[in-house]
């Protein structure tokens, strides 16, 4: 479980987060949406132990975020895939485990790459992969690390619309297989609805939770959900909340 209470983060004369409380159950999928610069990335970085709170508390599985990250229980997937260009897909996936002092487990890495649809590209280097394929490697790397929690910051932001939709559906499938706890930041309302069990709206800075909505759509969710009336109703409801309507 991720739990924060009264979370405030200040940088010099800027308050990035203010009195923010949040709980995410084990295996939950929470999407976070809000305007650019409102503090979404700072929230993820604080939940993952990359920023220290000025006030308040935050824990991941009962431990401090920094301790959970050092133990490999927290994995990040950013908009920039951050793959090492001189390493193959397989080597990139095993790299974080090695850095965390864990066995590389190449067999497990190959299985995860197969799960994300890259079983034929284990020896490929990033320069030969498409944008969507690079993000699949980054996701496989976080899963193979053994992280219980995945913090995903606009991972599909640089992809074209069709690839982004494909990757969103793929994330639904991967989450169903591994049931990680996920906090996923996005600017896309349809993406937030497709992926999340709950959707949080932030405003700021300083970032505060302006609204929250449960996404009452059955799982598993696949490409067909985009055409359903229930999905369109959820998207419309979240859009109204985003624009301050009820």
Automatic annotation (TrEMBL):
Molecular function via GO: ATP binding; ATP hydrolysis activity
Segments forming domain ABC transporter: 2-229
SUPFAM superfamilies in the cross-refs: P-loop containing nucleoside triphosphate hydrolases
Protein name: NitT/TauT family transport system ATP-binding protein
Keyword ATP-binding set for record: yes
UniProt-listed PANTHER family: ALIPHATIC SULFONATES IMPORT ATP-BINDING PROTEIN SSUB, TAURINE IMPORT ATP-BINDING PROTEIN-RELATED
Domain of life: Archaea
Stored CDD domains: ABC_NrtD_SsuB_transporters
Keyword Transport attributed: yes
Keyword line: ATP-binding, Nucleotide-binding, Transport
């Amino acid at each position: 479980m991720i739990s924060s209470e009264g979370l405030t983060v200040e940088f010099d004369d800027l308050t990035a987060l203010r009195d923010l409380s949040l709980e995410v159950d084990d295996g939950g999928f929470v999407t976070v949406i809000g305007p650019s610069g409102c503090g979404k990335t700072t929230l993820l970085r604080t939940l993952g132990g990359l920023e220290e709170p000025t006030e308040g508390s935050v824990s991941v599985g009962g431990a401090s975020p920094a301790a959970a990250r050092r133990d490999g229980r927290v994995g990040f997937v950013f908009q920039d895939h951050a793959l090492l260009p001189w390493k193959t897909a397989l080597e990139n996936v095993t790299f974080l485990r090695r850095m965390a002092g864990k066995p590389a487990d190449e067999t497990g890495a190959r299985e995860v790459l197969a799960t994300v649809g890259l079983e034929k590209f284990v020896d490929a280097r990033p320069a030969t992969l498409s944008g969507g394929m690079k993000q699949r490697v980054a996701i496989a790397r976080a899963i193979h690390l053994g992280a219980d929690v995945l913090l995903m910051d606009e991972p599909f932001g640089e992809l074209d619309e069709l690839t982004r939709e494909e990757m969103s559906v793929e994330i639904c499938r991967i989450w169903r297989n591994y049931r990680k706890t996920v906090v996923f930041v996005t600017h896309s309302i349809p993406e937030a609805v497709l992926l999340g069990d709950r959707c949080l709206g932030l405003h700021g800075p300083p970032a505060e939770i302006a609204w929250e909505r449960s996404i009452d759509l059955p799982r598993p969710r696949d490409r067909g959900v985009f055409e359903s009336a229930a999905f369109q109703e959820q998207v419309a409801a979240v859009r109204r909340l985003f624009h301050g309507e009820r």
